Amino acid sequence: MTDQTTDTIPAATTSASPKAGGGLLGLTKKDFGLFLLVIALTMLAPFLLNPFPENSAMAQFNAGYPDLMQRFVIFGIFAIGFNILFGLTGYLSFGHAAFLGVGSYAGIWAMKLLTLNVIPSILASMLVAGLFATLVGFISLRRSGIYFSILTLAFAMMSFALAYSVLTPITGGETGMQLQYFDPRILDAALEPGQTPRANLFGLDMATSTNLYFGNWVFTLNVGYYIAAFCMLIAFYLSIRIFRSPFGMMLRAVKSNQNRLNYTGISPKPYTLAAFVISGMYAGLAGGLLVAMDTQVGAERMFWTASGEVVLMTILGGAGTLIGPVLGAGFIKYFENIVSKINEATLHTWFAFLPDGLEDVVVAMIYPFVGKGWHLTLGLLFMAVVIFLPGGLVQGGQKLVGLFRRKKADDKTASSHTPAE
Amino acid sequence: MGILEVKNVGKRFGGLQALSDVNLSVAEGTVHAIIGPNGAGKSTLLNCLVGKLIPDTGSVSFEGQSVLGRKPHEINQMGISRVFQTPEIFGDLTVMENMMIPCVAKRDGAFSLKAYGQMMRDTEIVERAEHMLEDMNMADKREMHAASMSRGDKRRLEIGMCLAQEPRLLLLDEPTAGMARADTNNTIDLLKQIKDTRPITIAIIEHDMHVVFSLAERITVLAQGTPLVEDTPDNIKGHPKVREAYLGESSGH
Question: When you count CB atoms within 10 A of the terminal residue's CB, does the N or C end of chain B come out lower?
Fold first, then answer.
């Protein structure tokens, strides 16, 4: 409460032009702080995610390898975009994976026809996903609530089915799409037979990695990850700007009361459509980046479970918050890749210190929740979050901070009041 | 000719003739009340004025322009604002944001893709909204969540939001329904103050005779979907047909 007033009053009394938006990249102090934090976390991720020495028992909890880190930021982008639609307007799309998939196909075709450079490919992904989102949004937004969700789900399932069967010539059907040395690529020099086409940024191969060794620790710095992370930072920055803009306020108004909005002379439809297309383009960007990283696409990328996953990410992290979707995406991808790798043998080594009979019992009790059973743990966590923290992980964090602050204030002076949150 | 002209309006829902042959002229700058027993068609008439319903027959024009076939937001942009029976505000937003939205609607129109720029640094809108909040005596509630306010404050905010658009016609649908006496009197005072200080026409649908006779300069009595009489409050009070159709019933309570 106090933060907001201190942010706005000086701006309103000084002659700050709304377009110039002040010094710190046009963000308020608080938002700029958050943005700096996200920059630091993404840039240092290869170190932060590898806290355990190589070959140690805990090394399997290290998430700092390129493939997983790329997924963190790419699905972070996907969730940030989804949050612009769901978090702000409240329209729950159950078909956003379709835009991710369409973006991926557009991206790979740009790499097949034009060049292996990732920039035209990513632009093509965003453009085609945006166009497709305009079509789907225009039709689906005729309804709201559950009917809107069903319409988007129907579109996504149609897209999946088409990509899987009828459209095989352009999607590769069941086998998906890969790059080939004989693809036309009119902007690049032809490749030799047998040569593997590799995505690059002006000659810089996406797969290039540098390993840094500090004692027993190994940190991998990967070109692809940093390019994807850079895209995520731009996506995150734009999302902050949208949240704080007049447009963002109108989107929140759509969620709050469409009736009042209509009788305030504002038409909700173009606002929801714009939000839908923007989030579709975010999904397209994520799809394009996936192609830039692994140069292949399969139709399963558009399956409804993929659409459901981004819903989970957003809600788990905190729908309508800035950082929540990124946290949710990281959380789910971590589970998918790390917890799923814990097998029975690993558990036995962990609990080897227990007496034999007890060890077996403990392992048998834990085993259903890890390895192939990681979905069970995730499901339970998701339920716990939705029931106890409807605001997601962000709300959990805020509660912790609030608790900590209250304690601190109590320690200092009994009489001092803590500011109301 | 009045600012709002309703001519021969009829509306049928299945077997029910909700409105038939309604003629109404609201003179500019007056407070015009529409009263009538339950089921008289007051709300149906109001919905026909704001574009929520389209009448089967007849015409509705505002400042000489027909409103028929226009959507609610288009009619609003023509200069008609509506206050609902249950306050319709943006409950999830702060009071300040609630007040900023009509200011943005007034300046930028039905849609604007201003996805850049800080809303809270938009000096023009912030100043207008702050000014409006002061007018409504709500400056101290600026950062409150609108949903957490009392019913009376929500009503006050809603009226303020409508006024922020500087409408030429303000439609009120039973603005004091379900309010305690004190809140009702506050609302009457607020509306009187608005009437005295702003160049605005007010059309009010109301059940509470106390409210009607404290505010209205002209009263139309609606019964069974058709206007019975239209006259000044003093004449309405003594009108035998009205006593029979409406006041007779209510005085029995």
Answer: C
| Angle, in degrees to the nearest 10, between helices A29-43 and A2-13 | 110
pLDDT digits (tens, 9 = 90+) for A169-223: 999 999 999 999 988 898 888 888 888 899 999 989 999 999 999 988 989 999 9
Residue to test with chain B: of A242, A262, A279, most B Cβ within 10 A: A262
- Which member of A26, A241, A264 has the closest CB to residue B161? A264
Mutate to test the interface with B, among A264, A279, A282, A421 (most CBs of B within 10 A): A264
Contacts of B122 in chain A (CB under 8 A): 18, 246
Look at B114 and A247 and tell me if their CB atoms are within 8 Å. Answer: yes
Across the interface, which of B90, B108, B116 has its CB nearest the CB of A257? B90
Contact between B145 and B94 under an 8 Å Cβ cutoff? The reply is yes
pLDDT single digits (tens) A57-80: 788 889 999 999 999 999 999 999
In chain B, beta strands by DSSP E: 4-13, 16-26, 31-35, 57-62, 65-66, 80-83, 169-173, 201-205, 218-223, 226-231
- What is residue A103's three-state secondary structure? helix
Which chain B residue's Cα is nearest to A267? B110
Number of separate domains in chain A: 1
8 Å CB contact of A12 and B126? yes
Indicate yes or no: CB of B82 within 8 angstroms of CB of A263. Answer: yes
Q: How confident is the model at residue B154 (pLDDT cuts 50, 70, 90)?
A: very high
Domain B4-79+167-251 has CATH 3.40.50.300: yes
Q: Does residue A240 sit within a domain?
A: yes
ipTM: 0.91
Cα radius of gyration rounded to whole Å, chain B: 19
Beta strands in A86-232 (DSSP E): 177-178, 200-201, 204-205, 209-214, 217-222
d(CA B78, CA B66): 10
The answer to whether residues B228 and B222 touch, using CB atoms and an 8 Å cutoff, is yes
Q: Which domain holds residue A247?
A: 26-319
Residue A241: CATH number of its domain: 1.10.3470
